[in-house]
Specification:
heterodimer; A: alpha/beta; Rossmann fold; five-stranded mixed beta sheet; 18 strands; globular; B: Ubiquitin-like (UB roll); Alpha-Beta Plaits; 2 domains; 9 strands; 24% helix; binds flavin mononucleotide; binds iron/sulfur cluster; binds FE2/S2 (inorganic) cluster
Amino acid sequence: MSPADHQPFQAGFDEIRKAAATRQRAFAEAPVPRIHIGMATCGIASGALETKAAFEQALARHGIDARIHTVGCIGHCYAEPFVIIDHPESGFPPIFYPEVNAGKANMLTKLFLAEGDPRFEHILGATEENDMIPWIGEFSRFNQEKRVVMEKCGHIDPEDIYEYIAAGGYETLPDMFRRSPKEIIQQINDAGLRGRGGAGFATGLKWELAADQPGDAKRVICNADEGDPGAYMDRTILESNPHQVLEGLIACAYAVGAHKAIIYVRAEYPLAVRTITKAIRQASELGLIGNDILGSSFDLDIEVFHGSGAFVCGEETALIRSIEGFRGMPRHRPPYPVERGLWGTPTVINNVKTLASVAPILKNGAAWYRKIGTDNSPGTAIFSIVGDVVHPGLIEIPMGVSLRTLIFDICGGIPNKKKFKAVQIGGPSGGCLPEEFLDTPIDFDSLTEAGAMMGSGGMVVMNEDTCTVDISRYFLDFTQKESCGKCTFCRIGTYHLLTILERITEGKGSPADLKNLAQLSQDIKNGSLCGLGKTAPNPVVTSLRYFKEDYEAHVSEKRCPGMMCRPLIAFYIDLEKCARGCDACVGCCPVEAVFTTRNRKKGIDQSLCVKCGECMVACPPEYDAVRKVSPPELAPIIERPAEPLKDEK
Amino acid sequence: MVTLSVDASKIEIAAGTNLLAACLQNDIYVPNLCYIEGMDHPPASCRLCFVEIEGKDAPVPACTVEVRHDMAVRTDTPGVRRLQKTALQLLLSVHDVDCKNCPANRNCALQDMAKFLKIALKSKHLDLFLKKSKIDLGHPFLEYYPNRCVLCGRCIYVCRAQQAHTQLTFAKRGFDTVIGFFGNPQSSPPSCDTCRACAEACPVAALLPKP
Ligand SMILES: Cc1cc2nc3c(=O)[nH]c(=O)nc-3n(C[C@H](O)[C@H](O)[C@H](O)COP(=O)(O)O)c2cc1C
Ligand code: SF4
Ligand code: SF4
Ligand code: FES
């Protein structure tokens, strides 16, 4: 008699696990090479579909029997499309190749798979320790990460539930059903899990509040609306490992006593919609969702709701209104959704990352989770880091790591020998922090204290050629357009902020504008109804606080220190450096502003120039003759000869 | 019944009453635009009815609070007034202040509040932004003036209470938000012709029955 017979709900699950293990063994033990290709949206956008097709054709051409294994995103955007080739017969460990286009796919098939030469010059590293090829586990971009939520992302095929199960997935369910909902909540409380949707609200407490509501007409919702510009963590998780989110959602529903769950995912994420829909179907087929899950008599129905892509619909009360068929406008809280949510029933809304943290906690225990991160912010933080860093991408780190470590060690620092200027954390609701804050630990409370916020985890790193006024203008343009228009401060106030910022970036700002910006920002923060309005001024408030000199330069000197604001800059050609007759700049100028001077060098007609900077890009590095200056008056005036020179005709 | 203090007065009122309603019923004026008595979940969108409540660190809109026993409320603190003035100035910064030619002249919520809060109808430090289209004649029975509208939503609320199918909605987003008629209905229920609830609810003559 196996021990499972004494353990209710275990036998059913063990059968599923056995089936998964059998399939996995067949895959792992097949004596053929395996080619893992990252096929989440990021990979596809970089050409992974072409890469996959190229491998298929090349394999057929060379008559090689190999398995192509489509996986999700591994988080290394700079390396997309990436491929891991596991070719046991060659004697090499599995090898990670970055930026594999169709041509490289052909080449690797021929030279590595057919002839056994791994082409060292194209290798990023090996995915296992060995003594031939450097192991990626030793690279700081890999070894300073701590993967809890994204542990399996990029390693399993998200469209095959058995791969998740073979990797330990859904293991928490039988045990969970043997415990009471209260014990589950207790464990989440003990782990100190805080919501990853932005505000960092205690997840266990939220569940408890909903569980304490009478009746069983309750609902749980996974918030996958993710509308911040530059943020793509939730999409990646849904596309790379949807089942870990489902496992958390099942636990959440069980803990609060809900029998209906909804995944709210924006329709602009077609691949995520497809992956999660398929995952729900597969889990239902195995009886992990539906009626009487694993014989526990617990029923749960999970539906996918397609959001229409308004940023504000990520706000929980607006999200609820939009599911109910109303215009997605936030409502005043209280009542909170846990008291009166969707269709008036108690509703728990949790972020994708929050839910994806649940299964690891149930599996490894609260104490294990507490050991990761800091006292007040246990666990990991996931950031999508973009902008001026060498290795952008998705990164999961323990809370408490400093911004400096994240930007300079893990992401490789600022490219092109440029200096760091600022980092914008938390997207349009977040703040812009200067160098002094680089030693700030990344956790909910420290970031809020500094004036930024965790937000949903978008991070933009900016080098010295950045104008913080223009960055604020960019974010205000976004929040202004995405405001639902309901309340006075946000609808009208953010528009005033935006027009003032526009004025300043055009060099038409006044000292009174700076005062107005500061006061209006304060009132909008205090007066707005929902989080969108309350946080919309943050980019302005922080940049005014930490980069006042940027604003002052625009206002009093009509100068843009980052040289980004077009009305305040000019391009000119340094005659000392210009090579006679090279003409690279002439050809690239879209408005024919570049002319030939009397001594056959080039000049820019400032009255025509649209300041696109194309000439600066086109000028060959050995001449490097195009200069950018601010204010524009610094550009020397070079007369266009009245008569075109002969060779210009 | 509960007793609470609002500024210098003591008020006795039924438990569960909305705080804004309690103040207004007791002749304590708190600026407001979007609240209508009896609302189940007030929209709290105009952001004018701020008050300070002892124990809360920031001003809250009175229309979002139920009275509690022993509550201590202040309606005239500097923090409250600052928010109210800014909110009204913002509304006026998108308002076509042309009182002489406006049917609401002397019977206008904006004029009343400007007088109460002692602010000018034309702001000195905020730019004025008016929408290009001065009037929307898309509805068979109504005319709509976007540059008068304060987007309080009262019209939508009363319409929903009167009609089986609401005729009015918020349309567009952000700064461009306006009241819309779900496209341009050629066939509104004839009851619109006689109902006029929306026009009567409008505090600023932005929705009027067609002459
Ligand atoms: C304007 C706005 C947009 C938001 N967008 C999202 C979002 O895209 N995803 C999300 O999980 N939470 C978003 N939130 C936060 C949600 O309102 C809510 O707090 C969150 O989903 C709760 O989940 P958590 O407790 O797991 O963090 C947004 C909030 C605001 C104010
Ligand atoms: S703060 Fe902005 S998004 Fe939120 S309710 Fe007000 S207008 Fe709508
Ligand atoms: S039309 Fe009148 S009632 Fe309707 S939202 Fe505008 S101001 Fe309010
Ligand atoms: S009356 Fe309270 S916010 Fe409008």
